Amino acid sequence: MTRLALAFDLGGTELRGALVESGGGVVAQVSAPTMAIAGSDAVIGQIIALAGALLTQRPQADVAGIGIGAPGPLDPKAGIVIAPPTLAGWHDVPLIDILGKHFGLPVRLENDANAAALGEWRFGAGRGSGSLVFVTVSTGIGGGVVADGHIYHGRRGLAAEIGHMTITGEGDRCFCGAVGCFEAVASGTALGRRATALTTPGDGSLLRRLSADGDVSARHVVEAARADDISALELIEAEAKWLGIGFTNLLHLYSPDLIVMGGGLANGFDLLAPTIRATVEQRAMPAYRDVPIVPAQLGDRAGLIGAASLILWEGEPGAPLAMAQDEDNKDGATECAGARETSHG
């Protein structure tokens, strides 16, 4: 019988669960709107209910354990979700202990962006590579780094906070309070904000017609650009330049085998790619210019597949207990680790 893992991708809007096999195949999948304002007990109850629904679909499943991708900050080693901004009432919730006691199975926890990076590295666009940087461009910008076959967590689990690289001294203020963050100028939200400012309700533009005269989103910009709308194409050009600048920084910092772009804006990757590549060619040092920049392959399954691999591939490269992490708490410090801000992705 095939070994399976229960995998969960816990988001502030949607909770998704799946049964995943060791080869990365999703054999059953369920979802529900996250009861984000109802507190941790309610959401944990949802996880348990979705697990029951999955096991009802596959009553003979040989389940090896449970892998969870969740918004940060969290401590993947201790299994504690610290205080994610999109989940009300979550304060130092020992999620691994709670679910482990309920199911009697091993449970592993990882930051959601890291889980998606791991999924793409094992089974998606990064399969066969030694290292990659995964960048999710959607509401915000987040990502994860696989370095020499391991998720890189860094000191206190805070590595690869790529959405908050400062890449300009101007522009709108980021939610973190700073000006010039990568996320503030290059996220899908930023693209939609620029498109909304460029147009006005009732102006007859394709962008406003697609948005029904409401705020224009990045999805509307991509759709209009595919129809050869001049304003949308100019917005895509500007967006791709910002992404190219950010990706150049990531190439210089991490020297990966490739960069993988996921998130909602990756649906327009073919439109963005030429200017992204031209910007990298212009700005990167010569040794970095040939690194492939490719779209993610797993879509919204990346986080589920990556979370499952925490169980199914434990002890292999990429497993949470084999982290490429600074082990500098040698003086006995055991403070909880922070991780990603949940707006990413």
Characterize this entry briefly.
Helices cover 35% and strands 19% of the residues.
Describe this structure in words.
This protein is α/β, with parallel strands linked by helices and about 350 residues long. It has two domains: about 5-115 and about 305-310, Nucleotidyltransferase, domain 5; about 130-295, ATPase, nucleotide binding domain (Nucleotidyltransferase, domain 5, 2-Layer Sandwich). Helices cover about 35% and strands about 20% of the residues. The protein contains ten helices and twelve strands. Strands 3-2-1-4-7 form a five-stranded mixed sheet, sandwiched between helices. The protein has a five-stranded mixed sheet with strand order 10-9-8-11-12, with helices on both faces. Helix 7 packs across helix 8 (about 230-255) and helix 8 (about 230-255) crosses helix 9 (about 270-285). The chain is globular, with a radius of gyration of 20 Å. It starts with a strand and ends in a 33-residue tail after the last helix.
Please name the defining characteristics of this protein.
alpha/beta; 2 domains; 5-stranded mixed β-sheet; globular; 10 helices; Nucleotidyltransferase, domain 5; 12 strands; single chain; 345 residues
| Percent strand | 15-25%
Main β-sheet, spatial strand arrangement: 3-2-1-4-7
Number of domains: 2
Q: Which descriptor suits the 3D outline?
A: globular
Q: What low-confidence regions span 5 or more consecutive residues with pLDDT below 50?
A: 319-345
Distance between the terminal alpha carbons, to the nearest Å? 35 Å
What is the CATH homologous superfamily assignment of the largest domain?
Answer: ATPase, nucleotide binding domain
Question: What is the CATH architecture term of the largest domain?
Answer: 2-Layer Sandwich
CATH topology name of the largest domain, in short, is Nucleotidyltransferase, domain 5
Alpha carbon gyration radius: 20 Å
**Number of extended strands:** 12
**What is the residue-averaged pLDDT?**
88
The description of the largest β-sheet is:
5 strands, mixed
Fraction of residues in helices? 25-40%
Report the structural category.
Answer: alpha/beta
Number of helices, where a helix is a run of at least 4 consecutive DSSP H or I residues:
10
